[in-house]
Every structure is written in structure tokens, then in C-alpha cells.
Amino acid sequence: MFVLMADGSTRFLSSKTDPIVLRRMAAAANGLPLDAMVAGEPEIAEATPPDIPDEADPLVEDVEDIVAELAEPVDQPLDVPFVEDGPSIDLAAALAQPIAQFEQKKPIATRQLLLIIEEMVGVEIVETPLPKAVRARLDQPVILLLKDTTVGDLLTAVLQEVRLSYVVSKDQLELIEQTVGIE
């Protein structure tokens, strides 16, 4: 299985990993080495190895196939539909959520960046009221660096890159064309 470590990294640990080693990895602050042969855990009289399935076992092969499939990189975010009858989102609070730093170094289509922001806010960002020619701007690549900002300010900055804005409409954010004031 893959295990998330405290430093944010992930490691694959086999079912053959000694439980003492797992316990010591989880409690590294106790100062005990990871070597299971080194004494130091008085409450454990003798470690018994886990039942290890035979390598030719078809169940083991199925698990290895599943692990290999899960390890493959995903090119696109999951397409999860929004729940219409779910709990109401406090859009003002979601848009005011602070962000210490947001950096998009590589050019990415505005549309893809909006999907990321959509997940941050928790509501759908709708582009359908826009004319087709204006929606085409959402394919324009964007590079962005913002510090000490909010989700709402991030959304505004992304949309300014393609001369768009947004309004809160029901439980969604609706894209609109920016209006230029006449002085």
C-alpha cells in the first residue's frame, strides 16, 4: 500500500514489512531505530511474522495490478458533478478564504485554471451566458503569481487576463464580459 509520510512524501510499503518497523516509523520521535532486531519495545515479547501469501497467489497478482493502475498519472481532474440539492455554500466566505501564495508558472488554459478555482470555492463557475466568441478567450493560456490574496481575488485576477468578470448568481458564479466605464 502507499503510505503518506509526515513530511508529505508517499512511500510504498509491502505487506511483508515488519509491524515493529511500521510502529517505529509512526513514532520516530521515540528514538528507536527502524531495525526490528534492536530491542526497545518491552510490551512486545516476540514479534511474529504476518501471514505472507504465496507470490503465485492470483489475489496478490490482482492487488499488484490495481496498485500499478493507481500509480499511473492522471492527466485530467476528476469530473465530479455538483450536487444540486446539497448543503448551501457560503459564497462570501468561500471567496474570502485567504491564500498565502498562488503560483502558476507554466502557461495553462484559463478554463483549466477556473476548474481549480471552482474546486476551491465549491460551486460551479458558469460560462454559458457568454457568446461563443467570448468563451473562446477561456482557452487563452495564463501565468500567474499572487501573494497574500483570497480565492475571490485570485478569480478576479484570472478573469482579468481574458477581459472577463463574474457575478454571484444563485448558488453559482456566472462569467460576464467586463464593462468599460466612459469618463
CATH fold label of the largest domain: Phage tail protein beta-alpha-beta fold
Our Rg estimate from Cα atoms comes to: 25 Å
The residue ranges in which pLDDT falls below 50 over 5 or more consecutive positions are none
Helix content: 25-40%
Separation of termini?
Answer: 64 Å
CATH architecture of the largest domain: 3-Layer(bab) Sandwich
According to DSSP, the number of beta strands is 7
CATH class descriptor name of the largest domain? Alpha Beta
- Main sheet overview: 3 strands, mixed
State the domain count: 2
Question: How does this model look, in words?
Answer:
The chain has six helices and seven strands, in the order ββαααβαβαβαββ. It is of the alpha+beta class and 183 residues long. The protein has a three-stranded mixed β-sheet. A two-stranded antiparallel ribbon has the order 1-2. Helix 4 packs antiparallel against helix 6 (151-161). The protein is elongated, with a radius of gyration of 25 Å. The protein starts with a strand and ends in a 6-residue tail after the last strand.
